[in-house]
Write a structure and sequence with these properties.
The chain is mostly helical and about 325 residues long. It has one domain. About 70% of the residues lie in helices and about 5% in strands. It contains 9 helices and 3 strands, in the order αααααααβαββα. Strands 2-1-3 form a 3-stranded antiparallel β-sheet. α2 runs antiparallel to α3. The longest helix has about 50 residues. The two termini are about 35 Å apart.
């Protein structure tokens, strides 16, 4: 059940103010999640640099020892087991090829590391990045899953839906989370970013060897470069999370509003909205207020990676135009 769609102007004004309060809350929640990403990447940096320091003295083209092989195999097994455990535990895995992304990369690293010690360092780094990719995908999947459900429940309260049944289905949430944007899902972007990071770190390893310095000097230079490179990737991970969280919340808002019977929405610009978002929010589309759009035609959110704008249900008396209200 739901309440009448028609409301007073005072109600819609109050809704717009309440939406801005929610936007501030969503920002704080996003900042909290960003700290989680920082912790994941900082932990990976520590592990990578420890591995480099331990292995670099044994490099310089020497053959891979059986002990070195066992070390890599242990790292690879840890990443594979983590991926298997996520699927076996019934957690929110939104695609069938999750484990394949892990196994395909480890097979490549396993083949290349047999050449010399320089390659096993790269392979061990690759195994740790695979584990980071598993952690990042699992974490963001759970975050997006929970954000979608929370937003559906929030909209139910706003729109006066009294029944809590059928607010969402697992299939619906899964489809929204796994939705492709510009030809790729967020999970594919994570693994593409990991491949790019692996390539950069491989290049650093090769450069360190070419420099011809002592193992201690090589380790000092290399660990500093690794820390900087991985930290840059951390920012990309934060940006991806912000973009996906805003997108999923928008999808939940739009679906809830349309399913309730509203045909129009009002664009609510965040406090620090950019010029493009402000133009959307204050565009005159011929309705009773600026920033009102047909729900099916409203611009998608996010408009840009840091966009925190949102939409709110809006009722329009279709028998009265904006020009009529001014006459």
């Amino acid at each position: 059940m739901m309440t009448s769609l028609k409301k007073s102007k005072a109600y819609w004004d109050a809704r717009a103010k309440a939406e801005k309060v929610w936007q501030d809350s969503a920002k704080k929640d996003m900042e909290k999640y960003n700290q989680h990403i920082v912790e994941m990447y900082n932990h990976a940096i520590v592990d990578l640099n420890q591995q480099i320091k331990a292995d670099l003295a044994l490099a310089n083209g020497k053959l891979v020892t059986s002990e070195g092989m066992k070390e890599y195999e242990a790292l690879a097994k840890r990443a594979v087991n983590k991926a298997k455990a996520i699927r076996a535990s019934g957690k929110h895995v939104t695609r069938k090829d999750f484990s394949k992304d892990v196994n395909d990369r480890l097979k490549i690293y396993n083949a290349t590391m047999r050449i010399n010690r320089n390659e096993i360092i790269k392979s061990k780094i690759g195994a740790r990045l695979v584990e980071l990719g598993v952690d990042q995908e699992e974490s963001l999947t759970n975050k997006l899953w929970n954000d979608y459900i929370k937003e559906k429940e929030r909209q139910a309260g706003i729109l006066g839906i009294t029944t809590k049944s059928n607010l969402w289905t697992s299939k619906e949430v899964q489809e929204q989370i796994a939705k492709q944007v510009a030809g790729a899902s967020f999970s594919k972007r994570i693994w593409s970013d990991m491949d790019g990071l692996k390539g950069q770190l491989d290049g650093l390893i090769s450069s360190a060897v070419i420099r011809g310095e002592s193992p201690q000097q090589m380790a000092k230079w290399l660990t500093g470069m690794v820390s900087s490179t991985v930290s840059n990737q951390e920012y990309a991970a934060e940006r991806l999370a912000r973009t996906e969280m805003a997108r999923v919340q928008f999808e939940a808002q739009k679906k809830s509003i349309i399913d309730t019977g509203y045909k129009y929405v009002k664009w609510i610009a965040e406090g620090s909205a950019c010029k493009v978002c402000r133009e959307i929010a204050y565009k005159d589309n011929g309705y009773d207020e600026d920033g009102v759009y047909k729900a099916k035609d409203v611009p998608d959110i996010p408009v840009h990676p840091n966009c925190m704008c949102s939409i709110s249900a809006h009722w329009v008396d279709e028998s009265i135009t904006k020009s009529d209200t001014k006459s």
